[in-house]
Amino acid sequence: MKIENKDRAKILIEALPYIQNYYNKIVVVKYGGNAMINEELKNAVMGDIVLLSLIGIKVVLIHGGGPEITGMLDKVGKKTEFVNGLRVTDRETVDICQMVLSGKINKGLVNLIQNMGGKAMGLCGCDGHIIEAEMLDEKLGFVGKITDVDVQPILDVLEKGYIPVISTVGCDKEGNIYNINADTAASKIAGMLKAESLISMTDIRGLLRDKDDEESLIPVVNVSEAPQLMSDGIISGGMIPKVDCCIEAVRQGVNKVFMIDGRVPHSILLEVLTDEGIGTMFI
Questions:
Q1: What tens-digit pLDDT sequence spans the chain (283 residues)?
Q2: What is the C-alpha end-to-end distance of the chain, expressed in Å?
Q3: Hey, which of 93, 99, 168, 270 has its CA 20 to 30 A from 65?
Q4: Largest Cα–Cα distance in the chain?
Q5: How many CA atoms lie within 13 A of 22 on its CB side?
């Protein structure tokens, strides 16, 4: 479909107030789901992040990498076991998590951003002890519960004009390494940064009134409404921890939290720079 020049101009001018609103402010993007696996979507996400950075928005990219960790464990012949959605993580598994998250995935994303004309710096939660953690449950092994977050290294990287790309690995004062849930890490870091917004990329349109009907999207949720939505079963199952992280980020001082569909190309730009937006906004 050909877009006329006047329509291009209209699209650009519509973005102006959003650019002004976000200029020089921090936006945290939690990157995961299908958008990490599909190469076309991955390129679209990194392009969005570079564009936002170039127009003066301070983007912080936080990523997980569950499928790639599982793939590497399969390659070395190690069985993957989950308990309540959390990966049982022994010493060997956490070493592989660190290698995949902070090595292969993190540096691959940094390289992709650089190749698209952006400036990126890879970090993991252990760098500068950004994420300090302790064992969540002995049965789960080295799955971490965040005990403290120090965002100064992130702010230092932002100040130098780089996009921080952060893998969700944490550590304790004894040097133990922990695998950290990416939604939880993004929520905590966005809160400590007092970010203008947190954008959480998922594999659904957002929060749905009927989980089987993607047209039943709830566009805006006030955090005070969440208990009733849980009571009604609208927020249930695997959506509960994701919504809890969105709510926690708002309570920690993030102005707006968006849960968006990472399967839609350029969904970040559609959310940040258009009137219509996309997904569910928590306020």
A1: 566 777 778 878 888 888 999 999 999 999 987 778 888 899 999 999 999 999 999 999 999 888 888 889 889 888 888 887 778 888 999 999 999 999 999 999 999 999 999 999 999 999 999 999 999 988 899 999 999 999 999 999 999 999 999 999 999 999 899 999 999 999 999 999 999 999 999 888 888 887 777 788 888 888 888 888 888 878 877 778 888 888 899 999 999 999 998 888 899 998 888 877 788 889 8
A2: 36
A3: 270
A4: 61
A5: 25
1-16 burial: b if 16+ Cβ within 10 Å, else e: eeeeeeeeeeeeeeee
Burial class for 175, CB neighbours closer than 10 Å (0-12, 13-18, 19+) = exposed
Q: Which of 36, 173, 168 is nearest to 98 (CA)?
A: 168
Query: Which amino acid is present at 160?
Result: K
Question: With contact defined as beta carbons under 8 Å apart, do 249 and 257 qualify?
Answer: yes
Contact residues for 232 (Cβ-Cβ < 8 A; gap 6+): none
Amino acid at 204: I
3-class DSSP assignment, residue 5: helix
We find that the CATH architecture of domain 23-277 is: 3-Layer(aba) Sandwich (3.40)
Polymer length in residues for the chain:
283
φ, ψ at 251 (rounded to 5°): -65, -25
Distance CA 137, CA 139 (A): 5
Domain spans of the chain, in order of start: 23-277
User: Three-class SS of residue 30?
Assistant: strand
